[in-house]
Amino acid sequence: MKNRIEEIQNRIKTAALRSSRRPEEITLVAVSKTKPVEDIIEAINSGINVIGENYIQEAREKYEQLKDSDLSWHFIGHLQSNKAKYAVKIFDLIQTVDSLKLAREIDKQAKKINKIQDILVQVNIGEEASKSGTSSEKTLNLIKEISLLENIAIKGLMTIPPYYDEPDKVGPFFKALRDLRDNIIRENIPGIDLNGLSMGMSGDFEVAIENGATLVRVGTAIFGERN
Ligand SMILES: *Cc1c(COP(=O)(O)O)cnc(C)c1O
C-alpha cells in the first residue's frame, strides 16, 4: 500500500505543478468505506492522515478503534438528518450537506456538544436524478441560509460528477463547480470560506486538480477494489 500511496502523492504533485499550483494546497482523502480498520492503520503508517467514510454505522465502529490515531475524519456519504448527531461526534468535515433541513439538524446537534461543525455544500453539478446534492441554481441561496446557522462553518463545495470512462470528459463538470464557487465568492457572504473544492476520485483526480480541487477523494487506487 505504501507504494500506491506514494505514487498517488507523486501524481498529485505533478498535476498541481502542471497547473501552476502548490502541491500543499491539495489534501488526499483516503476513502476507506467497506475496508477494515487494519487497512486504515496501514494507510496511516504509509502517510495518510485524512480518511473519508460513507456510512455512519460503519464509521462509528471504526472510530471506536481509531479515535486515538492522529486522523482527520471526513463524511462523504449521504447523510440522513436522524444520523446527524453521530456525524457531528465523529467527523471533522461533513462534505455532503445538500439541504437546509440537514444543515439545521447538524447545527442543532453541534450546538449540543459545543462544536462548530465544518461542512461542504454538495452540488449535483451534472443535474443527475440519481445523485444527491443541491442544484447549481439553488446553491447560492442554500449557502446564504446555512451561513446564518451559528454552529456550522461552510468551508467550500463538493461534487460527484457524472461518470465517464475517459477522465477528460469530466473536466467541464469540475470547472463548472469551480466557476459556481467563484461566482458565490463575489457575493461576499459574511462568515463563510469557500476555498474548499472537493472533487476527483481514483479515475480522475488529476483532472480535478487541474480544475482547482483542494480535496481529492481516492479509494480504490489506495485500498484496491471494494467487494
Ligand atoms: C467511494 C467514493 C469515492 C472513492 O471512489 P474511488 O473511485 O474508489 O476512488 C469518492 N467519493 C465518494 C463520494 C465516494 O462515495
Entry keywords:
227 residues, alpha/beta, TIM Barrel, 8-stranded parallel β-sheet, 9 helices, 8 strands, globular, binds pyridoxal-5'-phosphate
Q: Your description of this structure?
A:
- The chain is built from nine helices and eight strands.
- Helix 4 packs across helix 5.
- With 227 residues, it is of the alpha/beta class.
- The protein has a single domain (2-223), classed as TIM Barrel.
- An eight-stranded parallel beta sheet has the order 7-6-5-4-3-2-1-8.
- It is globular and about 45 Å long.
- The chain starts with a helix and ends with a helix.
- Bound molecules: pyridoxal-5'-phosphate (PLP).
- The site of pyridoxal-5'-phosphate has 13 residues, from strand 8 and helix 9.
Oligomeric composition of the shown chains: single chain
The largest pleated sheet is described as: 8 strands, parallel
CATH topology: TIM Barrel
What is the fourth-level CATH superfamily?
Alanine racemase
Short description:
The chain is α/β, with parallel strands linked by helices and about 230 residues long. Helices cover about 40% and strands about 20% of the residues.
Sequence-ordered SSE layout with sheet pairings:
Layout: H1 2-18, E1 27-31, H2 37-45, E2 50-53, H3 56-66, E3 72-75, H4 84-90, E4 93-97, H5 100-112, E5 117-123, H6 136-146, E6 152-159, H7 171-185, E7 196-198, H8 205-210, E8 215-218, H9 220-223
Parallel strand pairs: 1-2, 1-8, 2-3, 3-4, 4-5, 5-6, 6-7
Helix pairs in contact: 4-5
